Amino acid sequence: MRLRPTRLALVLATASFFTVPPAASASVPRTIVFPVIGKVAYTDDFGDPRPQGEHQANDIMGHRHQLVVAAEPGKVRKWSQSGPTGLCMLYLYGRSGTTYLYIHLNNDLTNRNDNDGGCHNRVAYAPHLKSGQHVRKGQLIGYVGDSGDANGMQPHLHFELHPNGGAAVSPYKWLQRGRRLLYAVPMTVDSVALTMTGIVRWTSPRLNLGVRRVRTSQRLTHLVRKPVGVDTPIDVQVYRRTASGDRRTVTLGNVDPGDNVRVWTERAAPTFATQVGAAGAWTARRITILSDG
Fold first, then answer.
1. Does the structure show a pLDDT above 50 at 20?
2. In the prediction, which pLDDT does 285 show?
């Protein structure tokens, strides 16, 4: 999807209220946060022909309601069109001076294309999100959908990148090296605990998992593919699930590479280190071996 040049120019020209002071760097950060949590597919389709003209973005194909996060710190502005299939989108005016456009955000209340939700918080945008609000990198700002002229297509995020708020450039190289997150940070949260399911890669000096699924204490679930190192205190509870579905107590020494496990963590502050799963950022409270390697 591409906004008409006149509309884009008008919005960017009136964005001075939301931009950062001129002293901030005008260059795009070398590494941004990947804007969608979880499994996605995308190609460098920037410049491809579209009915409205050349494509000014990369389309990140995902699923309906998948979580969308801020690529860098900055201020947001919500923008929408009226009507049952109206376009829901968001501008992020980054601290670097870069403007990001998040287009085709969700407008469905169910997992089907019902178009019943409109461009509202908790549907298209994160709970409590307001235009002009400052957001941190990795903060939840919206949800993947198919609003606007993508109605009925596979849900995806049309992601534009405008250095200095000017002409769009391909976001592909930034997406390729973007930091993938374990979870998104809701605005009002000051601590979080995770339940991570994955395969044990190794066990020393800390438990290293190839995480496949994450559920937060805020009941947000993400399907991810990410290695995470988890500290294991001496008193961590370890169990093995039996064939009958019961569990029996074992020790950390019974956890082996290749085991399929579920790890419940202690609560931690929602820092960027915990979002990317930095080594030692999480501490295991309980581990259950679901199956042997």
1. no
2. 97
Nearest to 203 by CA among 276, 244, 252: 252
End-to-end CA distance of the chain: 45
Residue 250: per-residue pLDDT = 95
Residue for token pair 């049309």: 158
Query: β-strand 194-202 against 260-265: which pairing, if any?
Result: antiparallel
In a domain, 167, yes or no: yes
68 strand-pairing partners: 36, 142
Asked if residue 182 is part of any domain, the answer here is no
pTM for this model (two decimals): 0.85
- Cα–Cα distance, 216 to 5 (Å, whole number): 40
Residue 148, φ and ψ in degrees, nearest 5: 75, -145
Distance CA 88, CA 146 (A): 9
Reported as a single tens digit per residue, the pLDDT across 190-239 is 899 999 999 999 999 999 999 999 999 988 888 898 999 999 999 999 99
User: Do residue 128 and residue 206 come from a single domain?
Assistant: no
Q: Are residues 282 and 205 in the same domain?
A: yes
Task: Give me the domain span that covers residue 239.
Answer: 194-291
Tell whether 181 is covered by a domain: no
CA atoms within 13 A of residue 151's CA, in its CB half-sphere: 15
Residues found in the chain:
293
Q: Considering the chain, what is the average pLDDT of its residues?
A: 89
Q: Do 51 and 165 share a domain, yes or no?
A: yes
